[in-house]
Amino acid sequence: MAKTFFRLQKFLRRTQFLLFFLTAAYLMAGSLLLLQRTRLVIQQGSRGTSTNQALPVPDGMAGVGIIDPRMLQNPRPGPRLLVGMDALQEPALDQRHSPRWLVSRNSELRQLRRRWFHRFISDQEPVQTVGFKAMKHAAEHKGTYMGCFSDDSREKTLKGAVFYDLRKMTVSHCQEACAERAYTYAGLAYGAECYCGNKLPVTTSKPEECNSECKGEKGSVCGGVNRLSVYRVEELQAGARRRRNVIYRGCFRAPENITDTFPASLIQPNLTVEMCSEFCSKKEFPLAVIRGRECYCGYPTGRFSLHDSADRLLCSGMHNASSSAEGKYCLVYQTPVQDTRCTDRKFLTTKSKGFVALSSFPGAGNTWARHLIEHATGYYTGSYYFDGALYNKGFKGEKDHWRSRRTICVKTHESGKTEIEMFDSAILLIRNPYKSLMAEFNRKYAGHLGYATDRNWKSKEWPDFVNSYASWWASHVLDWLKYGKRLLVIHYEDLKQRLIPKLKEMVEFLNMTVTEDRLLCVENNRDGNFKRSGAKQKDFEPFTQEMKDLINRYILTVDEALRGRNFTGLPREYVPR
């Protein structure tokens, strides 16, 4: 009996030790995975859910102002907002999230942990030295492999267009992207970066130095560290060339000294738009300008800014040399070629003295504003979160720790005293809440570039989403007005309509200087790679009258708060709806 008891005791001790060891290993692994983002896990799943995300105000709590979601056990009662500056008072209660949203966020947390775990495992795998002979170059790809070349960042020849895809880059994908934009050569580097151009790099390298495997295609070479695998892309068929994205920009008065304004020109009888666009694309210019039989290529500049278009009738009969108001006007087209004067970006060489936030409610255009700031200043923007989709498309500051101060500003959707006061200053980007809510709902169900389906819009999720997020839109602005140390308020709608003046304000606020030509380049590339495409939702009104009444009251509160701080009030288009 004693022997049996001793064996049982020994087994239990061993089991207890094993459980203790497994628990410790699990905790250590979790700590390692979330070391940089321990307090940001929930935000990744919900696009940066604010710690002070507000929910509708129940009738019984009208005196408290805009309420933190933790104050509410049940967000369903009829919402009512106290319009006035007392909404700036701090919440008096601190309760938990409603069970419904807690379950949703716990689910998102589990998914995020899985992504972090798989990313961690893949990052920890030893880097295998892939033998050059094992790599495939041109055997399974269109086009001709030209060799391995040195990628000189100071004298880039393949700079006509640049693309990133740190998950799915393939040789074919890069070749097709360059061919669609009328380039002759496609070069791949670091396994994930694609460069296009019409001139081969000068310096060749040893074939084995191009040894980076393509992120989206095992066994294929996509350059190396400062090395380019260069392919001559297959010439598109005539029909495909005609379908290239040549955009009509308008009729403009020709500059006084047109030959000095544009660096390349061609005189051709029976000149067509396709001929001029093809010529300028080969020269790697984004503008094709036609005046009679003359074709000019160049960029938007101070002398030819494309800001003051003329009546198209003044360009009628353009192909007659003596017409078009005696050659005073010209037709302008955008070629498929990217304007590269503002595409170079890097991290700050020294830590920034000021810690600047780029703050907005989700869906208010933060990613677009980051695109504009990065291309205007030439420096990466950071992020309080880690968004793999943005990082994979070239926002390299996403992976840099947000406190590193190596970026020009830091994206955040946070609000609340602690989260705001850690920044020295902030650009506060505000967008119409109706548009913001729809944009964030689209992102939640279809990603950065897609649209939610009709089924999503007509489901119970949409009214729940509005009830939860509408007041967060207001509380976000109110908190930053209250706790922000130094603010520049930018309205999304003003930025769209007056891009260069507003972008200048933002750049000056960041203590940077920028040339007029670079700003014109940003304007020429204004959309970037994150403008929504695809089938839009059907033409129906997603907001019920109850939703509109709620949102309009929040709008009035924010407008009053802005004016109370001597900022410009909300644009007139916001209210009433």
Automatic annotation (TrEMBL):
Family annotation (PANTHER family): SIALATE:O-SULFOTRANSFERASE 1, WSCD FAMILY MEMBER CG9164
Protein name: WSCD1 protein
SMART domains with a match to the protein in the record: WSC
Keywords for the protein's UniProt record, in alphabetical order: Repeat
Native source species: Anhinga anhinga
Pfam families for this protein: Sulfotransfer_1, WSC
Family, per entry: Belongs to the WSCD family.
Family annotation (InterPro entries): P-loop_NTPase (IPR027417), Sialate-O-sulfotransferase (IPR051589), Sulfotransferase_dom (IPR000863), WSC_carb-bd (IPR002889)
A molecular function GO annotation: sulfotransferase activity
